[in-house]
Amino acid sequence: MNEELIKEYKNFLDNGKTERECASSIIALAEKCGFKDVNSVKSIKAGDKIYVPHMNKAVALFIAGSDPIEKGMNILGAHIDSPRLDIKSNPLYEKEFLVYMNTHYYGGIKKYQWVTLPLAIHGVVCLKNGETVKINIGENDGDPVFVISDILPHLAQKQMKENAADFIPGENLDLIVGSENPPKKDEKKDGEKKEKDKAKKAILDLLKSQYGITEEDFTSAELEVVPAGRARDLGFDRSLVLAYGQDDRSCAFTSAKAIFDYKGGKRTAVCLCVDKEEIGSVGATGMGSHFFENALAEVIAKMDGGYSDLTLRRALSSSYMLSSDVNAAFDPMNGDLFDSQNASYLGGGIVFNKYTGSRGKSGASDANPEFIAKLRALLDGAGVKYQLAELGRVDQGGGGTIAYLAAKYCMNVLDAGVAVLSMHAPWEITSKEDLTQAYEAYKNFLTLE
After folding, report:
1. Closest-CA residue to 346 (of 360, 329, 371, 369)
2. Mind listing the pLDDT tens digit for each residue in 151-168?
3. What's the farthest any 2 CA atoms get from each other in the chain?
4. Whole-prediction pTM
């Protein structure tokens, strides 16, 4: 395995717990590798390295090939958002001497997994004067952390009889952010009323003094609640990685790293990192938007021959793409949920998933066997370890990726990524061997002709 790669990967996870932080990190690394903002160049020729940022939450990286771009590109497409809790627009309230922030969960989570964990707040608060205040509280040793409380087992008889999906309601995933000491009974004079929201006001005073934020500023904020703590080696043998957000940043990092280390070739190489996959790839920064088309149009416009709609369409339809996304790792403790002959295993190498979707392949992108055969020949020749797998048993459930949104351009697309144990949990597990093999597979894929 590539220990230097793993070290860089864990550092990337620690500094990229939101899609904004990931996009910023990828752009910073890209600039160190010679990539330039598309808006800063007048023309693009073979070998040029270009990046196209989008709303601080998505980015496309290009290395121009020597062949005309209408002959197609080799695209690595990943997403950089992960399941989390989002702080609501009017979040602060006080209840019986405790101060809370109201949250709304994002993506598919098991709500009960998020209680009693040390949590951090990351994001931005945009002020009316045009200033953007960056927030990152809970990661440094001297920082406070936050938590969602739970019922003690002594009083949880009713809770324990409820379904796992119901016993922690979404509206109860509220963050404790402060407190006040209740007054002694003899300290309160007859007829004296308790000052309303005294503890909440104290928290607002702290936010104003430390960050220049008022309560009204939460209405133009994007604050995300994530597990506090760093990526760690897992196991006596240190063969695994335990970290938040490995779906899908394990694939985003190895894809970006592959294009950073790529020397260029005939076909234009692309690494696409988008947002909102966990909620259906919607919105202006998701794969369902026109971001990639627009980014590609900007690049084509600065190449020889200039822009034409036909060139854009030919470039897309002639492309190969690996939808760089994770797959469920076989869980020996719950083996009945998997078809063991068609499951992915930790340490088994990069996972190719011919189709995703659920049950009758609903919502899937079903890859062509001709394309898979080309990849097999390429990776076998390079000695890269891979495995073919599905997410789980046919009628057990399912999932989707950005593959079907790329396939609408008529390009060849195959899901290819890292196996993850405890996927969508606050702390996920991957294999260092798989991360290494994913990087090698992505790097070799960029050479495919």
Report:
1. 329
2. 999 999 998 889 988 889
3. 86
4. 0.94
CA proximity to 73, closest of 260, 255, 268, 313? 268
Residues 93, 120: Cα–Cα separation, whole Å: 19
- Give the whole-angstrom CA distance, residue 22 versus residue 449: 30
Which residue type, as a one-letter code, is found at position 131? E
36: β partners: 50
Q: The tokens of 311 are what?
A: 């060139």
Tokens found for residue 425 = 């949990």
Nearest in space to 101 (alpha carbons), one of 226, 225, 206: 225
Strand-pair partners of 137: 121
pLDDT digits (tens, 9 = 90+) for 12-26: 999 999 999 999 999
Task: Write down the residue that tokens 């796992």 correspond to.
Answer: 164
Contact 231, 435 (CB under 8 A): no
Exposed/middle/buried for 358, CB within 10 Å: 0-12, 13-18, 19+? middle
Give every residue of the chain whose pLDDT is below 70, as ranges.
186-194
89: tokens are 């627009």
